[in-house]
Specification:
Order of helices and strands: HHHEHEHEHEHEHEEH
Shape: globular
Strand content: 15-25%
Oligomer: single chain
Number of helices: 9
Number of strands: 7
Radius of gyration: 17 Å
Structural class: alpha/beta
Length: 236
């Protein structure tokens, strides 16, 4: 069962996140739709209401509290590998000024995201396609901020993500505690980025998280990203 408003608001407030009753109602609607849809399309292993609140919703919204400078007013944001919509949809729900684009390689997830955004009244653009292919289109270097939650190993994730970030923009890689950034630093520099901050925190319940903040300092060389077979055979 999804936690009640008072419990949810207290949980969020303890982490510095303010949630109105209206926003809570939309998050509850989101959770119910996700659990229902998950019965026919595998979107998440997290299906208990309190865990959805903590591990999905709170974790997504903490980006605004942990890295506020990466979300200026009216920012164009791309969420790569959106899956069930995290962190992109909760961010767009709370920050209506953000121009949010959701990207996923599976059409069935995009179908879910389109229906979800319609249900919640959230204006997001949902795009079906592979990140390494769409980076060769006019989407390249057109976003102020790019988010990616898990998705792939950091060197590979950097090659998927940084080509989309405009100069001066940021890539936010959301990870668990087990993956170090060091093996990806060479790839990040090669792709025009610079690690500026490592933000570690613990969610209520004990789950550890890390946000790697990378600033785009140089234009990504045109040969990146490579095709999927090259990326898999020889990660940067």
């Amino acid at each position: 069962m999804f936690p009640g408003f008072e419990q949810a608001a207290a949980l969020f407030a303890a982490e510095g996140v303010d949630v109105s009753r209206e926003t809570y109602g939309l998050l509850q609607k989101y959770a119910e739709f996700l659990v229902s849809y998950n019965e026919k399309v595998n979107l998440t292993a997290v299906t208990e209401g309190d865990e959805i609140l903590r591990k999905h919703f709170l974790d997504s919204l903490l980006l605004l509290q942990k890295a506020p400078g990466c979300f200026p007013e009216g920012a164009a944001v791309l969420d790569i590998g959106s899956g069930a919509g995290f962190p992109g949809v909760p961010l767009a729900l709370v920050r209506r000024d953000l121009r949010m684009t959701l990207m996923d390689s599976l059409q069935k997830r995009i179908t879910f995201l389109v229906q979800l955004c319609g249900l919640l009244g959230v204006a997001c653009t949902a795009i079906h396609g592979r990140a390494e292919q769409l980076a060769k289109t006019d989407l390249r270097e057109s976003f102020d901020t790019v988010t990616a939650r898990a998705v792939a190993a950091l060197p590979t994730l950097a090659e998927y993500s940084l080509p989309y970030v405009k100069l001066g923009g940021h890539w936010l890689a959301m990870k668990g505690p087990g993956e170090e950034i060091k093996p990806a630093l060479q790839a990040i520099r090669l792709l025009g980025g610079e690690l500026t901050e490592t933000i570690s925190y613990t969610l209520p319940g004990g789950d550890e998280r890390v946000i790697y903040v990378v600033k785009k300092c140089k234009t990504t060389p045109t040969k990146y990203p490579r095709n999927s077979s090259q990326i898999k055979q020889k990660p940067l």
